[in-house]
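hey team, just a heads up i'm posting the complex here instead of the shared drive bc the drive is being weird again. everything in one block, sequence lines first with there labels, then the predicted structure for the whole assembly after. its two chains so it's a bit long, scroll down
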Amino acid sequence: MEREGPAIELAGLSKYYGRKAGVDHLDLTVRRGEIFGFLGPNGAGKTTTIRCLVGLLRPNTGRIRLLGLDPVADHRRLAPRIGYLPGELRLYPELTGAQTLRLLGDLQRAATSRRAELCERLGLSSADLARPVREYSRGMKQKLGLVQALQHDPELVVLDEPTEGLDPLVQEVFFALLEEATHAGRTVLLSSHVLPEVQRACGRVALVRAGRLVAVRSVSTLREERARRVRLVLADGRGARGLGLAEHWSPRWHGDEVRLLVPPAELVAGLREVLAVLPVADLSVEEAGLDEAFLDLYRQDVEAAEVRS
Amino acid sequence: MRARFPLFWLALHRRRRMLAFLAAGMVVFEALIVAVIRAVPPTQLFAGTGPTGPDALKAFSGSTGDVSIASYPGLLGAGLVHPFWIAMQLTAIGSLAAAAVAADVESGTVELLMVRPVSRLRLLAERAAAVVAASLALNVAATLAVAGGVALSPALHHAVPLRGVLAAGLAGCAFTLCLSGPALAVSAAARHRAQVIGATIAFGAVGFAVNFIAMAWHPAAPLRYLSPLHYYTPGDALAHGTIPWGPFAALVAVGFAGIAAAVPLLLRRDLAP
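-- predicted structure starts here --
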């Protein structure tokens, strides 16, 4: 059993639905022991990619390796080492929570050593587990989904929109579980469109759009690369005016206040110039959020696609 | 057992109420047939149609040979090929065959099952076993109801040997296997349970209609070989006390051919809603 090499390796993965590409020549590598974010808007191909990863969909072309194994050919060897939470979790409504976990545990053919601990930490009581799943709220179903994905302590966890429906307290428990998983050397692939949770949990992220990979970056690099938000309040009461070189920094005026997006490399020198010519009464500089970084990457990718077409 | 074959038990557990009602319905229906036969002799029931009745009525007696519907075996056979009886069998088969693959794909539950170390062959094998077990249980219920009625009535017992009832029950099992195999093949390829239930009902209903037309209208007679009901002859089994092995083998072969066809269909397909 291969214990070295990447946890996930995709090379030229394509999956078509008729003539429409769900995923188009996707290349991706996820290292062992990292929490990797998989980001994109609805319909970007995240779920299709994940379903190919876990062997539910057969790719049209490309190569997939999870923990060094092929998810289709080596399914029975690989599956006990994987935990999976689908994006749209569907359960058997007439089974109780306990019956559901037992059924999925029996099928897993691995010790479900963490079941009781996870139920307790996520707030699924014995009374909850004795009720049929059809009586569960969205959040309770999601908790059950997390327990079934983690109860056998898998080496690789694939989570598609894991915090959907979870209240803030349970989300805290979830992030603690992720942290513990990485300390224990587990690998997590976290697909999401909720940027703050990716920013909080992941070391690296991949961004997909229309089935194609847009970028793979570390979260810290993305934030460093992005423009800083600079807010200036002017003291002379004259309002909007020409800013010279600073006109390139997308100024937005609100009375005497102007907001600028300044590239990090130009920040210090640029601000010196501005401060030298403008009567600045107040100043603040903020790091751009991950959401702005991604929106910027998207814009670049869309513009590049338009130029190509 | 439940831990070893969870997919088998899950399929039966989820449809246990439907199966219980169908079994009860079959028992009541067959008991009514026996009660009617005991109350009114067959010769009186069909007094106006001559000693054997028209050929088309053989389609309703479950015979392709010499068994008239105006006889005890013919009337008991009629209870085992009655549209109501067939509808109940089709309901059970259609529902459980749909649950084999298509219903899990449609509802999305297949994702949770198949990301575990469960091969597609195992899924099909356990779900096919559930269909067969349910069909077997329904046929056993119907057979026991008929056997009880025959044992309690001297006139019926004289005309119909108990081994004939057993033979008719076995023929019923072969008939349901014949319907189940193609239904499983459809389920292995389909995305919606309605497709499977529709195909199963169509297979049974068209088969019934083709058999009836072939027996009623001489130019269409060769078509009878296309109908599973041509090979399912409980009237003959009840009258003669033996299983007609040729037709029995044909029904079983179609059933296994359907299951065999389901294998590549399931292995090739995508399993996602």
